[in-house]
């Protein structure tokens, strides 16, 4: 690692290598988390499981993904970032591979609900916030935007391939692809991701040479996580951010990410076509989220969040009509507008969290905010499945999701612009 550090010394800061490795970890995580959307209909056909039964497992997955966030961030502070990530990747590879053998619904709940949900909580947004807070003082927004865009790239690279493999060779070929990918990324984490800049004799990018080093925390991770929640819960801004991220998760991972391919089937579109639309959204999100990170370094984050939630709400309300329109004005137009801000909300939310709660503890606090994101996702994944079962269509669920986004666009403007929130000692 030190040799690569010396090679980058005269060219660029090693922080960008740390970002690249983290990007790959988050990319594989995004691919695994998007797989249930491809697998839902094949699982229905092979095992006779209902849409709501499968949605229950996915709701457990999404909820645990979020709830693990603060504890994963605390474990990174206590036991080390690399150890935590490697343990999570090993659990991901094992649980996804074992799912190829499942025959009962309880096995789906255990493997894709419990185990995958817990493991992805340590290898997604909370990991990104932890790496950015350790390695960057300057360009934090851009770095977080790049990492957040990994979820879009995961869809762009893997979704069409997963849909093709599932259609041609069955859903088990998809889970083996993902298990192997999770295992293959582990050596890169060992070789190229230092614990922190000081581990390779560096300062964070943009950090003054005389800045004091952050003290290590030696408390139990559970205590670290709940101490952060106890202090954060006294801040109105925390609850506004938590609520906004609840709606963010409900309108992205929980609804479109989980049900869009099945929704396309209701309109006579093949799984490959639905996956291609999601991949197109991922392509636009790669651009939109990276740009959002750049904008977060230059404009008030509340204003950015107002624009993102407002555009997403309008796009969702338009979606039921998009299926009846041809050419560009149908699904391609929806894919463009919705895709541009799929997770563009993350960089300004991370910036608000870091400015409010300090760079060391911000990942733990952000982990609790991500918990709100995934509770919203779980609510939408289960609720949309139940509405589809009872009404025979996703139209009402789509309108509810869009309306919640429009309401959120208003309340994010109430977040204290002067950021007078407390700072953790």
TrEMBL record:
Keywords: Membrane, Transmembrane, Transmembrane helix
InterPro entries linked to this entry: MFS, MFS_dom, MFS_trans_sf, Proton-linked_MCT
GO molecular function, one term: transmembrane transporter activity
Top-level taxon in the UniProt lineage: Bacteria
CDD domains noted in UniProt: MFS_YcxA_like
Chain ranges of the Major facilitator superfamily (MFS) profile domain: 14-420
SUPFAM superfamilies noted in UniProt: MFS general substrate transporter
Transmembrane spans: 12-32, 52-77, 84-102, 108-129, 141-163, 175-193, 238-262, 274-296, 303-321, 365-387, 393-415
Protein name: MFS transporter
Lineage of the species this protein comes from: Bacteria, Pseudomonadati, Pseudomonadota, Betaproteobacteria, Neisseriales
């Amino acid at each position: 690692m030190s040799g690569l550090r010396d090679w980058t010394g005269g060219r660029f800061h090693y922080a960008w290598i740390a970002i690249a490795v983290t990007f790959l970890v988050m990319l594989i995580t995004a691919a695994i988390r998007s797989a249930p959307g491809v697998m839902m209909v094949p699982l229905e056909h092979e095992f006779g499981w209902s849409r709501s039964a499968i949605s229950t497992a996915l709701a457990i997955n999404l909820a645990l993904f979020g709830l693990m966030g603060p504890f994963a961030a605390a474990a990174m502070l206590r036991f080390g970032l690399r150890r935590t990530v490697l343990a999570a990747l090993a659990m991901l590879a094992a649980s996804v591979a074992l799912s190829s053998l499942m025959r009962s619904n309880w096995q789906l709940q255990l493997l894709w609900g419990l185990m995958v949900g817990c493991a992805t909580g340590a290898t997604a947004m909370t990991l990104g916030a932890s790496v950015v807070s350790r390695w960057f003082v300057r360009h934090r927004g851009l770095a977080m935007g790049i990492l957040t865009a990994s979820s879009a790239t995961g869809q762009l690279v893997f979704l069409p391939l997963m849909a093709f493999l599932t259609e041609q060779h069955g859903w088990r070929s998809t889970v083996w692809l993902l298990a192997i990918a999770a295992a293959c990324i582990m050596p890169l984490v060992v070789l190229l991701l230092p614990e922190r800049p000081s581990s390779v004799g560096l300062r964070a990018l943009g950090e003054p040479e005389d800045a004091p080093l952050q003290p290590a925390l030696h408390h139990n991770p559970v205590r670290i996580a709940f101490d952060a929640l106890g202090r954060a819960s006294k801040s109105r801004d925390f609850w506004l951010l938590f609520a906004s991220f609840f709606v963010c998760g409900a309108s992205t991972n929980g609804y479109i990410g989980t049900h869009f391919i099945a929704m396309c089937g209701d309109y006579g579109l093949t799984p490959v076509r639905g996956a291609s639309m999601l991949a197109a959204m991922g392509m636009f999100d790669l651009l939109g989220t990276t740009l959002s990170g750049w904008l977060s370094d230059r404009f008030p984050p509340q204003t950015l969040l107002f624009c993102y939630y407002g555009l997403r709400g309008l796009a969702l309300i338009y979606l039921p009509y998009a299926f009846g329109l041809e050419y560009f004005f149908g699904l391609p137009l929806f894919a463009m507008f919705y895709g541009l801000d799929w997770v563009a909300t993350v960089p300004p939310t991370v910036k608000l969290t870091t400015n409010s709660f300090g760079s060391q503890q911000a990942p733990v606090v952000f982990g609790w905010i991500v918990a709100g994101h995934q509770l919203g996702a779980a609510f939408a994944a289960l609720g949309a499945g139940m509405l589809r079962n009872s009404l025979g269509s996703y139209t009402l669920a789509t309108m509810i999701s869009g309306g919640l986004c429009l309401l959120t666009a208003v309340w994010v403007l109430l977040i204290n612009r002067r950021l007078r929130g407390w700072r953790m000692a």
